[in-house]
């Protein structure tokens, strides 16, 4: 695998811990696991992570920003998720998602989204359930311990680490804006990866 093929230099990926999974692994996520370390932690395949981030950015780019909903209950993701929303214009739920947001027009928070992205399928399960009821696609960041039912696209990654989440949302934002023609094909975001990373 040559570094030119990756969205980020391999060293940057490794530094963020994007590939470090948990000690628990589900059968579904086994395809994305490269090896198990002596301490029992699973290591995810970097090429597969990169491929899926690229695919997710491509999938999101098919939709206008106002049709994209990001739901994230996990506190470590709030900064990168909010910044993703700011630079792309996507709608963001950082914190508690109100069940019915996608299905009940009488709710104040009601949104007619076209696609949903979640950072962890268990804490974000109510958003996923709503998305499935209205029939919109779901992209989910999944660690080795996730059971990705009712998901259209799994992005294997460390979905708990601040640096990992910062890198993922920076890459997704850059990929989305490039595909939509907002920034040039070789252009980076004005915001740095560090700006997307929780201190």
Q: What are the main properties of this structure?
A:
199 residues, single chain, 7 strands, Rossmann fold, two-stranded antiparallel sheet, alpha/beta
Commentary on this structure:
This protein has 199 residues and is of the alpha/beta class. The chain has a single domain (3-196), classed as Glucose-6-phosphate isomerase like protein, domain 1 (Rossmann fold). The protein is 33% helix and 15% strand. It is built from six helices and seven strands. The two termini are 31 Å apart.
Gross geometry: globular
- What do the pLDDT scores average to? 95
- CA-based gyration radius: 16 Å
Q: Helix amount, in percent? A: 25-40%
Strand order of the largest sheet: 4-3-5-6-7
Q: CATH H-level name... which superfamily?
A: Glucose-6-phosphate isomerase like protein, domain 1
Provide the CATH topology: Rossmann fold
Q: Could you name the ranges where pLDDT drops below 50 across 5 or more consecutive residues?
A: none
Number of domains: 1
**What is the oligomer described by this structure?**
single chain
Q: For the record, give the distance between the C-alpha atoms at the N and C termini, rounded to a whole number.
A: 31 Å
β-strand number = 7
For the sheet with most strands, the description reads:
5 strands, parallel
What sequence of helices (H) and strands (E) makes up the elements? Answer: HEEHEHEEHEEHH
How many helical elements? 6
User: Structural class per helix/strand content?
Assistant: alpha/beta
